[in-house]
Amino acid sequence: QVQLVESGGGLVQVGGSLRLSCAGSGRTFSNFAMGWFRQAPGKEREFVTAQSGSGAYIVYADSVKGRFTISRDNAKNTVYLQMNSLKPEDTAVYYCAARWDSTRFLKKEPSEYDFWGQGTQVTVPS
Description:
Elements: E1 3-7, E2 10-11, E3 18-25, E4 32-39, E5 46-51, E6 58-60, E7 68-73, E8 78-83, E9 92-100, E10 115-116, E11 120-123
Parallel strand pairs: 2-11
Antiparallel strand pairs: 1-3, 3-8, 4-5, 4-9, 5-6, 7-8, 9-10, 9-11
């Protein structure tokens, strides 16, 4: 079992930045690929980015490429999402997720992930 707790959400103006954190506990963090997803009201949960357990492999959704950066510190059991140049369409609840997978093959479907955090709200008013 892995427990995930997100933090760092909030209200930010268009063009601003936020850094989300996701602290994990329970098992060896480096054995898990980590992903960030988001869900806006009335919409399905969508993939944002994912990073392999070693940190060497990363994939981004086209909508955030060049603006968001995922990183992880396995010694601290924490994954981060740096979000820059925020837009109103980035408004959503952001979730981190863990997948028991030490390979380089990153998954984009929510169903592929084993553990989820409770989510943190990010609001970018238009």
